[in-house]
Write the structure tokens for this entry.
Amino acid sequence: MSNQGKKSGPAPDALDLLRADHDKVKSLFREFESLKGNDDEDERKAELVDEICYELTLHTMLEEEIFYPVVRAAIEDDDMMDEADVEHAGARELISQLEVMYPGDDHFDATVTVLGEEVAHHIDKEENDMFDAVRSAGIDLEDLGEQLAARKEELDVDLSSPPNAIDVIEPRDGSRRSPRPPN
């Protein structure tokens, strides 16, 4: 899984990489909160929510595919890992609601606020409890960081690529989301 194209400097530490994602998302939520109640900022609010949803989707996929399985195998705390899985499921549910909502819709701001609160709680538990357990478990954080960085790059390309024609024509799982209106 080592995709080492252009490597500059030491491998990223897995926890530093995840913490940087956390910081980015917290910053996006703070900016959104600063715009609440300002109807003149609906376009920026929509952009922020798109970015929040994208970043959280990318981050949760990384954790669920690579980080959590490694952590679950290395530590003896199924309760903590199960809670993290459930918190991710809750975030995915709110993200799916936000993907079809727009600023000005009933509960738009409230949904973003609740997602932000849930994510803040999740980040706090991860950075304090889980990251401490990971450090104590002796996991090779540089190797894990390389894996996470390589997969993040792959996912970023996959998630940001426009759908091909067949994806547009045939809805997945029998459902279809309406696209956001153009800016």
